[in-house]
Amino acid sequence: MNRARRRAQWALAGGIATIVSVVVMAVMAGPEVPPHTKANPQGFHSTMLWLELALTPQEIFDNLGPFHTPEGTARRLHLDIADTFDFGFMVCYSLYNACLIYLVTHLNVYRLKSLLKLRVFLALGLLLSGTMLVGDAIENVQLLALTKVQSVHDIQPSTMSNLIYWTRVKWGAIFVVCLMLSAGYASYFRRIPTLLLPAAYATAGISGLIAISIPDARAVMEFISVRAIMIAWTGSLVHAALIALRGPAGFPLPDHVRHAAADAQG
Q: How does pLDDT run across 62-75, given as a tens digit for each residue?
């Protein structure tokens, strides 16, 4: 019981830190300047997401607009500030995901799940949490380089290929963790209202993997995946707060399982 509460407290701290980092980033960067090509065929309304998911140099400039214009300068300045503070955000949300994986792994011990499977679940989740951090950091370096380029022809092929690859590594790790958390929460919860949380994670994970796999479906991430993640992360934060206050729901553990769980969880 106390172990579960401590893990919930870590998740709670990670979630609060993530919220704080988002607020700081939003305040420091200010309102986002819409894409230069507002009616773009890709369907993006978010300059940041379109920049992350761009596939060609031409898309970069369709999004950012001409370099030497007041609007183009303002758009690039906003992105540079946001990407600079995004380094703090990526650390916070990666740790939050790791804490949620750790918490959900422990909660499923109370459902008498296989300890071996839970160890694999935990190891994979922590590995993916680290992967999303590395992917986001390398992606950010490419984004900061692209806002300095003055023409389409100046964009280096290596910068473009690195952006495409590492953006999908980051988002792929995030969406797979979403599916893992969906499965973990669904295994733990027993009532239909609480199953809305794993449903939100499943929606984020499935729609997001589609978005990064099919070029014409990229805007799905903006309108479905990101919103589903926000709902799911908020739900996990509330759930972690409840566990931190009153402990987890579950069945009493037999002594031999309790001792084995203590050894497995450290």
A: 999 999 999 999 99
Cα separation, 126 vs 123, whole angstroms? 5
Measured over the CA atoms of residue 9, residue 12, residue 13 and residue 14, the dihedral's sign is positive
CA dihedral (117, 118, 122, 127) in degrees, to 10, reads 0
Question: Tokens at residue 164, please?
Answer: 């495409």
Residues whose CB falls within 8 Å of the CB of residue 69, separated by 6 or more in sequence, listed in order: none
C-alpha 201/C-alpha 210 separation (Å) is 14
Record the pTM.
0.91
Give me 203's structure tokens. 């929606």
- Amino acid at the residue 104: V
For residue range 131-159, list pLDDT tens digits in order. Answer: 999 999 999 999 999 999 999 999 999 99
- Chain Cα centroid distance, residue 216: 21
Termini Cα distance of the chain:
14
